[in-house]
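Throughout our pipeline, every protein is held as a single compact record rather than as scattered files. Such a record has a labelled line for the sequence and another for the backbone structure tokens. This encoding replaces a full spatial description with a residue-level series of whole-number codes. For reference, a complete record is included directly beneath this paragraph.
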Amino acid sequence: MAGVSKRAITSLPWIAGGPRSGSISSQRAMSLVPLFACVRILADSIASLPVQTYRKNGASREMLTFVPSLLFQPAARDNLFEWLHKLVVSLGLRGNAYGLITQRDAFGFPTSIEWLNPDDVWVDELRPTMPVFYWQGHEVARELIVHIPWVVLPGKVVGLSPISHFARTIGVGLSATEYGLSWFDNGGTPPSVLKNSAKTVTPDDSAEISDRLSARIRSRKPLVLGSDWDFTALQVNPEESQFIETMRLNASQIAAIYGVPPEMVGGDSGGSMTYANVEQNAINFANFTLRPWLSRIETKLSALMPGREFVKFNVDAMIRVDLMTRYQAHSIALTGGWRNRDEVRALEDLPPLPDGQGQVYLPVAMLGGPSNSPASVPEDPNPSE
């Protein structure tokens, strides 16, 4: 072993941590518009949804009126929206979200979690059931880490990174963007041709004529040509240069990775969107795009709640219908007796009725008329029975 360098491994392996040499970094990948749009749409949509806390009570559930500490102030500098936004951005870019528990309540449940940069975290997956987490080269106790992966292969702990896994697809979009910028900035072809058929122009004369012509064009002054000059401006059709088609195809591929409708990020949807199906598109987006992300986050957050408490996102708040449809839905709920009037008023941001009049779960026909007082219970016609 003489002459061989020896180094002690006290934390991370030498090759661990951060992006590989020559790979696409998160910052560079985010400069691609379709990828940025996908991550932004997912993060904005999920972070803006109301989060409701429930408590299991046998076969039923009860909505809690108070907000748990973890959802009220989840981090030192972040409110709930910013906290959830960082969580989804980390999942979308690196396929993993790593949270460090910084505070707990008297019962040991987390009240503050700081999301870490995934590039600073390395996981020893030698034993998948007992992984070892390292942050910035130091081992962190497993009970202090909240790990939410995106797509995980069997026998693994760390989720696949979409930027690393689809580096070629993202690289095509970045290369096309850079090529298009170079094309339109520098010109793939000369911007114009000035031709003289009467005499031979020397290189020096050609350069002087070109400079004078460029100066005239920049100054927006009239251009006077001799009898034998032929001026032709050249134009490049963007369709012929295939920039638009290349970028549209790349946007559709990136949208497919994240499950986002292609038309939302500049891709080709394969059909037309009309006013009649806007609401249906919102429902499809909630069901097929957001639901897997929401279920993943709800499951992890619910595991951090005490006892029988769990959390759920209110997806209905995202689907905005017209006034008539909304009122018809309220009427059906009241008539069927599975919502009371205070619950309907709360959905419309109205205060509850006085004296508890709106808390009765009865069909409207059984509510005591204009006075809004609850109907009395009819007498039993056969009391002896």
